[in-house]
Amino acid sequence: MQGIQLDLISEARISQMASMEKVRYIIDEVRKGKILVLEKGLNPMEEAKLIEMTMSAIQPDVFSGIEMQSYPANAESSLLGKLFKKQNSKRLTVIGPANQLKTLKKDRNLISALVSASK
């Protein structure tokens, strides 16, 4: 059976991993051609490390890199949250091979992507 594998990864599973373990896991799975949907996204440091490691792993005709989109968590509206400038984490994040996943539209509450079966 030919197709595209889409892995939906719970916050519980990803939160059990150390930062570098998350980054390595994501790169390994995307290199296999999988599209990952993380229930809770990465923090800014993890995203930066993922991009850095992906850029060093790109090889023409082997690994074209990743496409990643996420939307921010709901804004903190409590007085304490505003006073302490609570860092908003990302909500759902979609990550996949750059040659298979293309973002069509993104706003605060919607990510629309096109997934192609060609590699």
From TrEMBL:
The lineage of its organism: Archaea, Methanobacteriati, Methanobacteriota, Stenosarchaea group, Methanomicrobia. This is DUF2073 domain-containing protein. It comes from the Archaea.
